[in-house]
Amino acid sequence: MDAAQTSPAERATPIVDIRGLATVFGKGDQAFAVHQNLDLQVQPGEILSLVGGSGTGKTVLLRHILGLTRPTRGSVTVLGQPAARLGGEGASARVGMLFQHGALFSAFSVLDNIAFALRELGTLPADVVRDAALVKLRLAGLAPEHAARMPADLSGGMIKRVALARALIMDPPLLLLDEPTAGLDPNGSDEFCELLRTLHGQLGLTVIMVTHDLDTLYALSTRVAVLADKRVIVAGPPREVAQFDHPFIDHFFRGERGRRALAPATALAPVKET
Ligand SMILES: Nc1ncnc2c1ncn2[C@@H]1O[C@H](COP(=O)(O)OP(=O)(O)OP(=O)(O)O)[C@@H](O)[C@H]1O
Ligand SMILES: [Mg+2]
């Protein structure tokens, strides 16, 4: 592609740059490859949705980006550094993560859950940590009176919000979300999408989100990357990717669910006066 055809986003330094990635689990006869020759670049400010069948390695890919697991081959560069260097201390200041089965610490209050990473640093006075956690609580759309509640007393939507506030406590520029709207009813899911959209705009975040939910995907994504056949087979704007010829895409985007997810946009299109 020549320079005239590349958009400014494509010319920027990627926040995440994955090249030639291979992930092999098991040894000898038991060895199986999850990723092979996988490439993916994510530019600053994007909301990239990562989709793929169950077991195709979406969560493992997020764990590589977090530096929690090491690829067998290839490189994973995050914010200009090898992801492996992010692991451990300081990681949450660079990458926030909302885990797929993102349980909160059940013995900690909402506020203590949110404050966790900052408190662990041990560099700030308790009242500063508390104020910072209260700011994030508000940011995630919760009220100050929720601060003292225990996780068992929260709704599913509130748990997601607390987990989001916890992921953002250190103001990371990159946020990873693994199935953020799974388990929420359509209303809760819409509210969470709205919150993510607002935070993305306010905080200038780059977001990588694994999702099976087409409504969430169409509501938020600037681009979609499809994981199939052990690699990213296509990445681009949602409506372009939906036209790509592959059995998974056919089923995921053009099956009944896909047509339903697209329907509201069509219904809301302005009616031409005749
Ligand atoms: N630490 C590990 N050791 C061995 N195998 C693993 C490990 N982590 C993941 N796997 C395997 O790698 C494959 C990909 O797992 P992963 O959790 O990334 O799938 P996924 O795409 O997130 O699926 P889902 O949509 O169901 O969440 C699975 O077969 C899983 O069992
Ligand atoms: Mg997963």
Number of helices: 11
Under the CATH scheme, the architecture of the domain at 10-107 and 173-262 is: 3-Layer(aba) Sandwich
Can you give the helix content as a percent range? 25-40%
Each distinct ligand: adenosine-5'-triphosphate, magnesium ion
* Regions with little confidence, pLDDT below 50 for 5+ residues: 265-274
DSSP E strands, number: 10
The whole-angstrom Rg is 20 Å
CATH class of the domain at 10-107 and 173-262, named Alpha Beta
- Please state the structural category: alpha/beta
Most strands sheet: 6 strands, mixed
Strand order of the largest sheet: 6-7-8-3-9-10
Task: Quickly list its features.
globular; ATP binding; 274 residues; binds adenosine-5'-triphosphate; alpha/beta; binds magnesium ion; 6-stranded mixed β-sheet; membrane; ATP-binding; transport; 10 strands; Rossmann fold
